[in-house]
Amino acid sequence: MMTKGQRYHEILAVLARRGVGVVDDELIKHEAGDQARAEQLRRAFEELGTTFIKLGQVLSTRSDLLPEVYRAELVKLQDNVPALPENVIADVIREDLKAPPDKIFSFFELVPLGSASIAQVHAARLFDGRDVVVKVRKPGVAELVRVDLEIVAGLVDGWSRRFPVLNDYDAHGLVAEFSDTLKAELNYTREAANVKLFHDMFKNEIGFKIPGVVEEYSRNRVLTEERVDGRKASDIVDLPVPRRATIARRIVRFVLEPAFERGIFHADPHPGNLLLQENDTLGVIDFGKVGHLTPEQRRRVADIFIAIDRSDAERLTDRLIEITTPAHPIDRALVTSEVDRMLRLYVGNAELKEVRFGDAFGELLQLGRRHRLRVPGNLVQFFKTLAMSEGLLLKIHPESSFPIICGQWPEN
C-alpha cells in the first residue's frame, strides 16, 4: 500500500489531469462547459476509487449543493468491480472467524453474488442446514479510506481559505458527515447491530421478513446473515391490485415507522433490497446504509409534511431555516415567496394522497442551494429515501401515498 504522501500526489495528479481542483484561483477549470466539467469530475472519481466513488454518489443526491448537470453525471458512478480471488476472501474469513470457510460452512459459493469496492457477498450454507449470505470486507479498504478521508479534509481546509463559498456551505461539516457515514459502512459490527434492531422491530409483525444475524460467524470484517429470497418489489405489476396495495402499505410502514418512532431508517430502499416472497411477505436486506434522525429533527420533518399538506409557505419557510441554521443573513420574504411558488406548483389543491413528496423535497433542496442553506446530510438522506420509496410506490400501486396524518399507520 502506498504512503499517505504518495496517495496525496496521486489524487492531485488525477484531479489536475481531469481539470478538477484549484486552477488559476478557480475551483474548476472554466474553459469547458458544465457538461464536460461534470463528466471529467465523474471520471476522476472513478479513477480514484472507493472513497471518491462513494463521495460522488453522495453528492449526486445533494440538490442543495450541486446543479443538476453535475448530479446527473455523478449518479452514473457505479460501484461494481471484479471479484477478488477465492484465497483472498478465505484469508479474511480465517483471520476474523479463526477458521477457514470449509470448517464453518458446508457449502460456500466461490462466485460472489456481488462485488463492490468495499466488499463482496457470497452465498453459503451452515452445517445445520441454514442458507446464509456472507459479506466480506476486502483487504486494505479501511486503510485506504482512512488515508483518503484525511487527504480530502486537508484539501478542503486549504481551499476554504481561498474560497469563502466553501465556508458558506460548511464544507468541513460536509466532509465530517461523509467521513462518519463511510466509516459506519466499513464496520460490519455496526451493520449487524442495525440488522438486529430492525429484526427486533418487525419480528412479530405479519408480512415482514428481516434476516437474522448469525452472530458466531460475524465480526468487524465478516457479516453472516440468514438468506432472504424473493423477487424485486418493483416486478409485481402482474399481481392483483389488492395484493399490490397491501405490499405498498407494508413498504410505507417499513420506511416511516422506524424513522418517526425510533429515529432510524433504511437509507437504501432500492428495488433490489426490497424482496417479495410467495406469501406477499416483504423481505428487506442490506442494512449497510442506515440513517438516524434526532427527536427534534423528527418533529421538524413531521411539521414539514404538515406545512406541505396545508400549503403553508410561512410554516415551511420557518422549518427550512430551522433545519439549516444558516450562518449568514437570510432574505426571509424572498425565501417565503419561492416556497409559496413551489407549493403552488407541487401541491396546489391536491389532496395529501396525491402530493408527490419526492418532487417537492427535491425542489426544496434546490431552493436551499440558491439561498446557501445547507440541509444536514442525514435529512437529505431521509428525503432521498422517501423519494426512492415513493417512486417504487408509484410503480406498483399509484394510488398509494405516505400516510402522515396523526401517525396513523395502515394495517397489514
Task: Walk me through this protein's architecture.
This protein is an alpha+beta fold. It has three domains: 4-79 and 142-185, no CATH class; 80-139 and 187-227, Phosphorylase Kinase, domain 1 (2-Layer Sandwich); 230-412, no CATH class. The chain is built from 16 helices and 13 strands. Strands 3, 4, 5, 6 and 8 form a five-stranded antiparallel β-sheet that branches. Strands 7-12-11-9 form a four-stranded mixed β-sheet, covered by helices on one side. β11 and β12 form a beta hairpin. The longest helix has 22 residues, at 141-162. It is globular. The termini are far apart.
Number of domains: 3
Q: What is the N-to-C succession of helices and strands?
A: HEEHHHHHEEEEHHHHEEEHEEEEHHHHH
- What integer is the average pLDDT? 87
Structural class: alpha+beta
Q: Largest sheet, if any?
A: 5 strands, antiparallel
Tally of separate helices: 16
How many strands in all?
Answer: 13
Nearest-angstrom radius of gyration? Answer: 23 Å
Helix content: 40-55%
Overall form: globular
Short structural description:
With 412 residues, the chain is of the alpha+beta class. Helices cover 53% and strands 12% of the residues.
Features:
alpha+beta; Phosphorylase Kinase, domain 1; 412 residues; 16 helices; 13 strands; 5-stranded antiparallel β-sheet
Element layout with pairings:
Elements: H1 4-17, E1 20-23, E2 26-28, H2 34-48, H3 50-59, H4 68-74, H5 86-97, H6 101-104, E3 105-108, E4 114-115, E5 119-126, E6 131-137, H7 141-162, H8 164-168, H9 171-186, H10 188-202, E7 208-209, E8 222-226, E9 231-232, H11 241-262, E10 264-266, E11 274-276, E12 282-284, E13 290-292, H12 295-309, H13 313-324, H14 332-346, H15 357-370, H16 377-396
Parallel strand pairs: 7-12
Antiparallel strand pairs: 1-2, 3-5, 4-5, 5-6, 6-8, 9-11, 10-13, 11-12
Helix pairs in contact: 1-2, 2-3, 2-4, 7-9, 11-16, 12-13, 13-14, 14-15, 15-16
